[in-house]
Structures are given as C-alpha cells and as structure tokens.
Specification:
Elements: E1 2-12, E2 15-21, E3 26-28, E4 30-33, H1 41-53, E5 60-73, H2 76-79, E6 89-99, E7 116-120, H3 122-127, H4 131-143
Parallel strand pairs: 1-6
Antiparallel strand pairs: 1-2, 1-4, 2-3, 2-7, 5-6
C-alpha cells in the first residue's frame, strides 16, 4: 500500500527552496502525509507548508497542482519506522508554491523537521536530493518545464 502524500516545490526569487533534514542528511522539499483532518490535498499542502516552515499562509501562494500522482518506494531503513507500517512507499501529489522572501520562513516556529533551508538552482537541488525520492521530484520538474 502507498501512503497518500503531498509535496511542494517552492519557488523564491528565481531559485527553489531546499530544506535540510538532519535525520537523512539530505535536502528535500516540504512534504507530508494527507491526514484524515485534511479536507483535500490542497488543505494538506497548506498545513504541511505552515507546519514545516513556520510560515504564514498569507506569505505563500499555490501556483500549480500536478496533473499526476507519483509513487516512490521506501528504502529498508524507512520501512522499519512504525508510522509507515503497512506502507511500501508514498503516492505524492505535487504542488508549485511561490514565496516572495525567504525571511518569511521561521523554522523556530515549525515542527522541527528541518535543520535549515537554502535557495538552490534546480540543478543544485536535484544533485543534492535523496536518491530514493529523486525520480518523483524530477518527474514533477519535467511536468512544469524546468528540466528536460
């Protein structure tokens, strides 16, 4: 079974927001499971963006919602975590979000998932991304026309 999930590529000043997870030692996007309390995938990505970045909803805008759900499989070390029990991977719906200023992000007000954030070119971001999640991310980047 695949866990339903939302993910966001966040554009800021012609670069993309990369979020560093110390538990994976990798950069990734804002993402998270769709909870029963979420009325829709849009509600889920708004909640996840606010929770993970400590940003106010007025400071970001959803620009695009993917046409497709994308799947990836969990590596063995993730499969062992209790919160993913019964799931072999995630099925993600991607969003493109825009923020005007990285200063609107307040990790100290977030749930603490990310140690730091930075702005990367899409090439830098892809080259530093978790291998097991990269195909899904790359495919979304192709859908919106920022990579070939």
């Amino acid at each position: 079974m695949f866990r339903k999930n939302v993910a966001a590529l966040i554009k800021c000043q012609n670069k993309y927001l990369a979020c560093f997870r110390s538990d994976h030692n990798k950069w990734q996007n804002v993402q998270g499971g769709i909870e029963t309390s979420d009325s829709s995938p849009i509600a889920a990505i708004i909640r996840e963006t606010k929770e993970e970045l400590g940003i106010e909803e007025k400071d970001f805008k959803i620009i695009y919602r993917s046409k497709f759900w994308r799947r990836y499989f969990f590596p063995k070390h993730i499969l062992k975590k209790a919160r993913f029990e019964g799931n072999i991977g995630q099925e993600q719906l991607w969003f493109l979000i825009e923020i005007k200023d990285i200063k609107s992000i307040h990790l100290e007000k977030s749930v603490g998932e990310f140690q730091k954030v930075d702005l990367f070119t899409i090439e830098q971001f892809l080259s530093n991304y978790s291998e097991w999640k990269k195909a899904s991310f790359y495919d979304f980047c192709r859908e919106i026309g920022i990579v070939n």
